[in-house]
Amino acid sequence: MCHTIKTLFFDFGVNPTVYELDQVPGGREIEQALARHGGGGDFPVVFIGGNLVGGANEIMTLHLNGSLSAMLKRAGALWL
Description:
Elements: H1 3-12, H2 27-39, E1 46-48, E2 51-54, H3 56-64, H4 68-74
Antiparallel strand pairs: 1-2
């Protein structure tokens, strides 16, 4: 996951599960599957609460418009 997005989540107090696809067996196949299913080939691909949210641009947009925090709370990733 992109350093910026990881840092953003850590700053929120969220402990994300991160899969570095270049470091896991079958990572290339996972990357291709994500691209076919809406990931668009842009990485990081972020899921919140099991739902595909998108890449870094989508996460930053949600953060800037104030809705990322609420999304993380609904997913149970943020308690405050």
